[in-house]
């Protein structure tokens, strides 16, 4: 790792972090300008804490101490401070030492002594744990591998900070002092500890925003109307259970209460005699900085900025937004917005509607996050239409529309929803993903316990809204979709599909497999549902068609019988207005309510399988199913009718369609219900006006349930005894030093072929040698060295891997044929200097494939696989997986491309060695995962034969890794 000159301030060490209680702090290097801050900080530390730090009474710092603690070289001596409001709340320092514990004289010494000091008022907030993560990362960057710390036995809090960190450690007791030694190499345990702390802290920070004890609306208009007064009115109408305050600097000095709302009024936050947890800001952008300052000084925990005029307004607004974020975080506050639509919490003990939505949504089990206010309105309206009121099928638990999402993002809501017992399904509409690596990690973890449904707008390059400053995404949207699928995310395309999938997943159990039973009183509607199932890859049974005059009791009996059978995993009920004896339709409201009660009664008796309803011209049925359920009063009992023969006895099974009896057994998988919420829940059945919509939502549930089953037994990243990780790391460092002297920071370099082959060999990947052939005589000597038969290939960029253009000649058996082929090649395509010909030994015939790995700045490290050739590229028949890939990942990856049958004996051909292919892909994944400097590996072609494989072409690119990644210490993003 390159180190900067002494005293070069390392700006990339600066970070905003969320603490245990949900507040934030800024971590940064200590500079000589911090002398006064350090003295002020030390004066506020108790004598006991000073004693624990220095092992003796130490009432004040001398001038020499202040100089020593504020002057660092940022290599052997480093100090970091955690700040809130610009003032120190904690410090950490390390000094490099030698084996005897004395100041190090050589950069080869890889141990440092570390010590912390936390202001008493901030102890217990997790400040020291956060500082340890960051100072450990700094130490590793500077070549330090171990920390040593001496702690008094009575200082149990600090001992716990070290012992709970998850690092490999050694603990001794000598001369009345506990000596701890920590190996700073990250371990699985240390990463788990860090991720767990991150989740709890960020979830707590969101919880403080969603469940405030008091809210101040700053910018409340003096007369009805306007954004501020509307927000206040919505809070009151929702029945907010906390305390409300209206704030406006233009209020008369003697105004104590705003009428007709009856809300306490104040000119500034300073005039409010009690704490304020959440500030809703509705003032012009130019006035926001003063408001944020007042909020910070008053101790406000979070701010919701409804004001516009920020990044969505251009470059000046973007800088205004960055300033707003820095200011809010400097006071330890989380920020929603700017240009936000608001947030909602329907919990009965909160009832918060701090948004511009005029109607409080019904309480339910769906969590919503949007970046767009317009889409937020559409989602809330769509859900209200599908099930208004508390306890209905479309009720929500929480809603956040973050606008420009300068701070709080979808990642934060995933952290909160992960263990929120009131949310069963997470729905997100995203227009940009600021930290895709973290999003994939959080989505995968959340999806393992509850569904995550995502619709992404602005899917194409350059179409992200102006308010969203995000990393450039190089991979196509199809790749992003594939990676979301790998993480268990249910990816949909429209707002309607978001609602359709969310309702089914929130109301019904997960299906145990793809077998679908279809029953109803319409042959035509049953056929539509059947065809839709086949289109979505489900396995529908022959529909059970009831008479058109079937009563609600007939539906109940048929559904109950179907649910108790073993032949299906889910049921689609189709319904049209039933027809009387005179042939007239009866779509009255009472019939819909009766049918809804009957279906609920059947489902309540066996809730192990999901049920969905498709209806035509029966809006009353949909409304009755969406409403909170009422007890079912059955009509006079009738025997369930026999299926009606349709199409003169022709079965409703498409030719060649699989029969239900061939379905493999599945293990039933339910969405886990937190213990606090255990017990029977009201039966809610989603209804759809089109078969295609119902089946598409059901298919998403089937695919998600299958992912859940495989995620329960995740694959493993195999270890190979012949991998030389340390030697590869040394090679990479040497190559970077040699090749990047004149390369701009952040740019990658291609390795010379010999160096690329040597590096790949460290990981057991051995490309077949190629020898240059600048003239016919050299080509003949190369062929004699390799042995006939050989291949003659061009390596010019425009002809590389293009056998269709004649740049590759195979099976050359002897010298005469080689000379003739060389002449034909150069006569037809160009001079040897242009073509750069090479000679390579022939390998056994097989299927030509391509294996690639690349690091995208947004998507992270991605492993890609496909068949070689133009058709795969033109049809985008390439599969992608996130790195590190497991054995299960690559097994599924090679089978997921449309051309996969060519690998498994298509049309009588011999199957190839896919086990060898999987091992090669896992080795490439390990190389990129172990060494972030390896930014691209391209193996093309990889010829997979019936026994073994051969890598015929290989290239590798290296670059200095970024200073911070998602694998580093936790930090809030800055856009």
Question: Could you characterize the architecture of this molecule?
Answer:
The protein has 975 residues and is of the alpha/beta class. It is built from 27 helices and 39 strands. Strands 1-2-3-4-5-6-8-7 form an eight-stranded mixed sheet, with helices on both faces. A seven-stranded mixed sheet has the order 11-12-10-9-13-14-15, sandwiched between helices. A seven-stranded mixed sheet has the order 17-16-19-18-20-21-22, sandwiched between helices. β9, α7 and β10 form a beta-alpha-beta unit. The chain is flat, with a radius of gyration of 33 Å. The N terminus is likely disordered.
Strand content: 15-25%
Specify the overall morphology. Answer: flat
- End-to-end distance, in Å? 26 Å
How many E strands?
39
Sheet with the most strands: spatial strand order? 1-2-3-4-5-6-8-7
Tally of DSSP helical segments: 27
> What fraction, in percent, of the residue positions are helical?
25-40%
Mean pLDDT equals 87
Low-pLDDT residue intervals, each spanning 5 or more residues: 1-5, 635-679
Decide which structural class fits the backbone.
alpha/beta
- Summarize the biggest pleated sheet: 8 strands, mixed
Radius of gyration from CA coordinates:
33 Å
Main attributes of the structure:
alpha/beta, 27 helices, 34% helix, 8-stranded mixed sheet, 975 residues, disordered N terminus, flat, 7-stranded mixed sheet
């Amino acid at each position: 790792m390159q180190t900067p000159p002494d005293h070069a301030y390392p700006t990339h060490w600066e970070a905003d972090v969320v603490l245990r209680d949900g507040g934030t702090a800024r971590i940064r290097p200590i500079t000589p300008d911090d002398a006064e801050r350090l003295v002020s900080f030390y004066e506020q530390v108790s004598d006991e804490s000073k004693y624990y730090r220095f092992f003796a009474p130490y009432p004040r710092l001398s001038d020499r101490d202040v100089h020593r603690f504020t002057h660092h070289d940022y290599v052997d001596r480093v100090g970091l401070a955690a700040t809130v409001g610009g003032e120190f709340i904690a410090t950490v320092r390390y000094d490099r030492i030698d084996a005897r514990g004395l100041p190090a004289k050589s950069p080869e010494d890889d141990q440092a002594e570390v010590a912390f000091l936390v202001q008493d008022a901030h102890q217990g907030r997790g400040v020291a744990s956060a500082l340890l993560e960051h100072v450990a990362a700094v130490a590793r960057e500077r070549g330090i591998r171990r920390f040593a710390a001496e702690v008094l036995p009575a200082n149990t809090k600090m001992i716990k900070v070290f012992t709970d960190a998850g690092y490999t450690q050694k603990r001794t007791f000598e001369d009345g002092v506990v000596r701890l030694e920590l190996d700073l190499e990250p371990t699985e345990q240390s990463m788990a500890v860090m991720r767990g702390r991150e989740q709890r802290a960020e979830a707590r920070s969101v919880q403080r925003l969603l469940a405030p004890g008091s809210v101040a609306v700053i910018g409340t208009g003096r007369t009805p109307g306007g954004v501020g007064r509307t927000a206040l009115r919505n809070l009151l109408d929702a029945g907010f259970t906390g305390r409300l305050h209206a704030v406006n600097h233009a209020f008369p000095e003697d105004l104590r209460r705003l009428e007709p709302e009856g809300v306490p009024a104040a000119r500034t936050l300073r005039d409010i005699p009690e704490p304020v947890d959440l500030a809703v800001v509705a003032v012009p952008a130019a006035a926001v900085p003063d408001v944020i300052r007042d909020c910070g000084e008053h101790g406000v925990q979070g701010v919701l900025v409804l004001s516009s005029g920020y990044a969505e307004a251009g470059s000046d607004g973007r800088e205004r937004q960055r300033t707003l974020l820095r200011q809010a975080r400097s006071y330890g506050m989380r920020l929603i917005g700017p240009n936000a639509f608001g947030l909602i919490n329907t919990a009965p003990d909160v009832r918060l509607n701090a948004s511009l939505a005029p109607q409080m949504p019904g309480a339910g089990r769906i969590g919503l996050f949007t970046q767009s206010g317009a889409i937020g309105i559409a989602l809330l309206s769509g859900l209200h239409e599908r099930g208004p009121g508390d306890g209905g099928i479309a009720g929500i638990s929480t809603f956040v529309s973050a606008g420009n999402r300068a701070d709080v993002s979808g990642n934060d809501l995933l952290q909160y929803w992960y263990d929120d017992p009131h949310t069963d399904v997470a729905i997100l509409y995203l227009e940009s993903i600021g930290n895709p690596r973290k999003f994939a990690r959080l989505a995968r973890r959340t999806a393992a316990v509850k569904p995550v449904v995502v619709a992404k707008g602005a899917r194409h390059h350059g179409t992200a809204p102006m308010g969203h400053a995000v990393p450039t995404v190089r991979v196509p949207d199809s790749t992003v979709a594939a990676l979301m699928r790998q993480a268990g995310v249910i990816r949909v395309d429209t707002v309607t599909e978001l609602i359709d999938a969310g309702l089914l997943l929130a109301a019904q159990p997960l299906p145990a497999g793809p077998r679908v039973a279809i029953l109803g009183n319409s042959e035509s509607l049953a056929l539509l549902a059947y065809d839709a199932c086949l289109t979505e890859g489900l396995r529908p049974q022959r529909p059970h068609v009831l008479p058109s005059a079937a009563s609600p009791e007939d539906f109940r009996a048929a559904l109950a019988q179907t649910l108790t059978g073993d032949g299906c995993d889910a049921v689609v009920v189709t319904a049209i207005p039933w027809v009387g004896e005179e042939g007239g339709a009866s779509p009255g409201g009472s019939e819909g309510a009766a049918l809804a009660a009957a279906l609920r009664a059947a489902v309540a008796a066996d809730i192990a399988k999901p049920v969905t309803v498709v209806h035509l011209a029966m809006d009353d049925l949909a409304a009755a199913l969406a409403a909170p359920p009422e007890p079912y009063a059955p009509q006079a009992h009738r025997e369930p009718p026999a299926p009606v023969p349709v199409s003169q006895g022709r079965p409703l099974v498409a030719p060649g369609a699989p029969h239900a009896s061939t379905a493999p057994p599945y293990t039933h998988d339910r969405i886990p219900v937190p213990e606090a919420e255990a017990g029977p829940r009201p039966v809610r059945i989603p209804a759809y006006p089109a078969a295609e919509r119902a089946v598409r939502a059901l298919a998403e549930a089937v695919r998600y349930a299958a992912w859940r089953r495989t995620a329960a037994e995740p694959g493993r990243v195999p270890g190979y005894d012949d991998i030389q990780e340390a030697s590869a790391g040394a090679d990479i460092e040497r190559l970077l030093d040699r090749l990047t002297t004149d390369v701009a920071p952040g740019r990658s370099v291609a390795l010379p072929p010999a160096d690329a082959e040597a590096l790949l060999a460290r990981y057991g990947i051995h490309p077949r040698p190629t020898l240059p052939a600048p003239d016919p005589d050299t080509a003949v000597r190369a062929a004699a060295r390799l042995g006939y038969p050989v291949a003659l290939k061009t390596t010019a960029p425009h002809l590389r891997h293009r056998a269709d253009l004649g740049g590759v000649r195979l099976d050359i058996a002897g010298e005469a044929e080689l000379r003739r082929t060389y002449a034909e090649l150069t006569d037809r395509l160009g001079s040897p200097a242009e073509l750069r010909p090479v000679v390579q030994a022939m390998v056994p015939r097989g299927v030509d494939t391509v294996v690639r790995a690349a690091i995208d700045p947004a998507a992270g490290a991605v492993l890609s696989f496909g068949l070689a050739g133009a058709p795969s590229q033109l049809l985008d028949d390439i599969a992608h997986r996130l790195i590190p890939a497991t054995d299960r990942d690559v097994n599924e990856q090679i089978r997921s491309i449309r051309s996969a049958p060519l690998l498994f004996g298509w049309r009588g051909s011999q199957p190839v060695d896919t086990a060898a292919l999987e091992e090669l892909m896992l080795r490439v994944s390990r190389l990129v995962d172990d060494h972030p400097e390896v930014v691209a590996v391209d193996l093309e072609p990889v010829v997979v034969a019936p026994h073994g494989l051969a890598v015929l072409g290989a290239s590798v690119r290296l670059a200095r890794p970024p200073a911070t990644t998602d694998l580093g210490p936790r930090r809030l993003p800055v856009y």
